[in-house]
Amino acid sequence: xQSVLKYGLxxxxxxxxxxxxxxxxxxxxGPSGGGGGGEAPPPDNTVEVLPDAAxxxxxxxxxxxxxxxxxxxxxxxxxxxxxxAHVDTPALDESVVAGSGGTLQNVMVWVDKGLDAKYVxxxxxxxxxxxxxxxxxxxxxxxxxxxxxxxxxxxxxxxHNIHATAKVNAEFNFSQDPKKTDTxxxxxxxxxxxxxxxxxxxxxxxxxxxxxxxxxFKHPFHGVTGGDGTVTLKGVPPGSYTxxxxxxxxxxxxxxxxxxxxxxxSVTVEFGE
Length: 273
Known about the structure:
By secondary structure, this protein is mainly β. It has one domain (57-271): Sandwich (Immunoglobulin-like). Helix content is 8%, strand content 35%. The protein has helices spanning 2-19, 80-84; strands at 57-65, 108-113, 128-132, 137-138, 141-145, 150-154, 160-164, 172-176, 181-184, 197-203, 211-217, 222-224, 230-236, 239-247, 251-259, 264-271. A 5-stranded mixed sheet has the order 5-11-10-7-8, with no helix packed on it. The longest helix has 18 residues, at 2-19. The radius of gyration is 22 Å and the shape is globular. It starts with a helix and ends with a strand. The relative contact order is 0.25. Mean pLDDT is 88; it is low at 1-30.
C-alpha cells in the first residue's frame, strides 16, 4: 500500500512540474516579444534607470530592396465616399513601398537582445498616433512603447472601426464616428498595449482593405524606416546586440551589432525576392 501511495505522489509532483504553478502548460510560440517579450514592463511609477549618456552611441540601419520595386496596386474601394477621396490620386497598396536610392520604407527595427535588464524606461508622455484618412490607415507601420498612450483619429466623414488583433496584449475592437479622436491609455475602456508584442495587425472590419501594423516595445530603441529607408537608434549603451528587422511581406531578419563607447555603427539589411 505504501509503495502505491509513493508512486501516486511521484506522478502528482511530475504533473505539477509540467503544468507549472498556475496549472497551465507552457504555450510557447506566438508573436515576437519585440525586445520586451510578453512579460509585463515596470509600473508607470517605477523610477527610470537610464544608460550613461556620456558613453551611449547610435546604430543606424538601412533597409535595401533587392531589384526593382514591384508596382503598387491601386486599392479597390467599394465604399463610394471612400473612393471619392481618391478621385485625383488613387490610394495604393502599401505592402511594399520603395524609398530613395533603392531603399525600403515601412521596415520596423528594434533591439531584441543584449540590452542590460537593469535599465528601466518610462513610456513617452506624448501618444503614438494613427489616423484613418481617406479610408486608409496613416502611417501604415508604427512602433511605440508599452503603456504609451495611442491616439486613434478618424479624419473621414464615414464611420470606421479599429480592430487590433493582438495575441499577447488584449485585443480591442471599437467603432469610431466621423471626425472623432479617441486616446487609448492604460485606464481607458479600450486599453493601449501594455506589454511587448510584434507585430500587431490593425484592421477596419467595415472597410476590408484597410490595414496597418504596430510594434510594441519596453524600451525606446526601435523605429520604422521612412523615405530614405533608414532608422537611427539613439542613446544606445555600449554592448553587443541582436537587432531584428521586420517587413510585412519579406519577413524578419536578424543582425548582430557591437557598439563601443560613444560609438556610431551602421548596418544594411537587404529584402526582396
